[in-house]
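Researcher: Here's a chain I'd like modeled. Treat it as a single chain, no partners, no ligands.
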Amino acid sequence: MRGRPSPWLMLAAAMAAQVTATAVVSTPLLLIAHLHLEEGLSLVASGALAAAPTVGTLLTLVAWGAIVDRVGERVSLTSGLLVLVAGSAVALVGAQRDSVLVLAAGFVLCGVAAASSNSASGRLVVGWFPAHRRGLAMGIRQTGLPLGVGLAALVVPAWAESRGIVGTLVLCLATSVVATAFVGLSVVDPPRPEHVGSDAAANPYRGDRRLVRIHGASALLVIPQYVVWSFMLLWLIERHDWSASAAGLLYASSQVLGAAGRIAIGWWSDRIGDRLGPMRQVAAVVTVTMVALAVLGESPVAIAFMVLAAVVTVAPNGLAFTSVAEIAGPRWSGRAFGFQNTGQYLTSAAVPPLMGAVVQHAGYGWAFGVAAIFPLAAVAFVPVATDR
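Model: Modeled as a single isolated chain. Structure tokens:
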């Protein structure tokens, strides 16, 4: 095991960490419909609770990146999952005591844990896979996000309806414990190059604008993604009269399709030897899709475009992460992932409450139309390969 493990086992461990952390931190997001329709909370209040994990992640992303740069992937991933166990336990106590404050604190702690898997699992994959397979491998790893959300969507609405919030959080806690044991026993740190000369640790942000522009484009692209993730369930239930279980099933199915799209675009980027060109093209497709959603309104055809939006809005993430790792290099990629994720979570944390206010006062069409502005701006932000 400690000799040279299979890169695919390392990918499986990275996926386990990412899927588990994502599923747990997505739980409050998928409780918006239950909290709003069953518990009577406003969309703004429900959205604020859903944003609690994002706050925890946002505050610790760069710190986790520095930790993984210094101590390696195994310690960082295992430590992060232990924090996820603790956060799930605190949230469970909050649900049992009917304390929204303790519940939110637990979700914040879960968000802190998720920041670890965002940086460390990406480095683990980049470190064990060669460049000509890295786009595909990172595309598979990036499916952890939609698969985690899809898994939560498949379970959380139905469990909240039948077992309540307490039963849902018991499942989160149990899943976190299993994932922690698997990752702690299987992960091996990839080989790291020796520190030779000053170039080995040179700051990749000096004299090179590409990383900053990729960070900016990714922060813009995450906005339509979180609009879809936050309000697809409620939109199906409230505007199209779907049941919570049926809406959750479509939500989960769309996340699986999104995962397949990430793999496909990662494979494509390997074939053409370019990460950033496909990223620009997908951003343009996201813009058109969100405009179509805004225009179609409550038409049944809009449901097909909602599924398409769930697929294309998640597609660029793997390309961005792979290009960040390749530009930053092995001694800076942890911190670069931290900066990358910080920008994304900074914008995504604002999406549920702010877009909830737009939906509440102006309707879904306006929310989808506003969301279309940001991927259009991202097209201009994505650098070309030679831009330095």
